[in-house]
Design goal:
Length: 275
């Protein structure tokens, strides 16, 4: 695996001007954030060894290098999901590649279903912690000690300092940023109402089909991680309606402006942290 990371890193470095400090992974329908990036270099996933294209509508499949408020960023517009038939290694390759490029912090974003009944469609949530309900782990298999330790600690999977920055930025913007635990499921079916009741009992506040493996791989490589969920819908059974990917994408677009504002100012602050 480390060979694949190195090859991907090399191909990107050949086109890269400056080393990125902050990495961002954009979730379903949240790709328009890239409009806020300046001095862009755009690299299609087709041109990065071992990446391949994404298969999900709403995921573009390109890496954007550039600056946000003067901070060097590397932004993954489009991610790989396990339900696409990718291996876990492939799912986390983009995050591992960003780490290989030299980022110190990573912001994982996603569209999620709201489980916590105090949430509403359109809310932004700072991910406080996660539950891996995927029955999978990207670290299964022999461990490459040059990449990270065999048994990584996950006590601070979502870095307290980064979470405090998100909260602080939101407060300054007058944005009601919620806090919650994200449960990662395999998909691609949405959940049943019974599953959602179970997840609520287990302590989850929102549900989605991504992020969890990426957070694990990022922690494995010693990155500081934070995450933002966009509640594109209340989870199954909470409202008397069916869940449709089209509606969920549309809702993500509606949240775009406040999502972008939160991300831009947070990147500016996170970029100032020393290592
Ligand atoms: N469940 C799982 N993933 C999701 C949802 C959901 O309700 N909404 C957006 N992504």
């Amino acid at each position: 695996m480390s060979g694949k990371i190195q090859e991907a890193v090399k191909a990107i470095e050949a086109k890269m001007k400056n080393k990125p400090k902050v990495g961002i992974v954009l979730g379903s329908g949240l790709g328009d954030f890239v409009d806020a990036i300046e001095n862009k270099t755009v690299i299609s996933y087709d041109d990065i060894p071992h990446f391949g294209q994404t298969t999900v509508v709403g995921h573009s499949g390109q890496l954007i290098l550039g600056t946000v408020k003067g901070v060097e960023v590397a932004v993954m517009q489009g991610r790989f999901h396990f339900y696409e038939g990718r291996t876990m290694e492939e799912v986390v390759l983009p995050v591992r590649t960003l780490a290989g490029l030299g980022i110190e912090s990573i912001i994982l974003t996603n569209a999620a279903g709201g489980i916590n009944l105090s949430f509403t469609q359109g809310d932004l949530v700072c991910i406080e912690d996660q539950i891996n309900f995927m029955g999978q782990n990207p670290l299964i298999g022999p461990n490459d000690e040059s990449v990270g330790p065999r048994f990584p600690d996950m006590t601070y999977a979502y870095d307290p300092e980064l979470r405090a920055i998100l909260k602080d930025v939101a407060k300054n913007q007058g944005l009601d940023l919620k806090t919650g635990v994200y449960v990662g499921v395999l998909g691609p079916t949405y959940e049943t109402p019974a599953e959602i009741r179970m997840f609520r009992t287990l302590g989850a506040d929102m549900v989605g089909m991504s992020t969890v493996p990426e957070c694990i791989a990022a922690n494995h490589m010693g990155l500081k991680v934070c995450g933002i969920s966009c509640v594109t819908n209340m989870a199954a059974g909470i409202e008397a309606t069916k869940l449709m990917h089209e509606d969920i994408k549309e809702q993500a677009l509606k949240i775009m402006q406040k999502f972008t504002n939160l991300l831009v100012d947070s990147v500016a602050k996170i970029g100032q942290l020393s290592k």
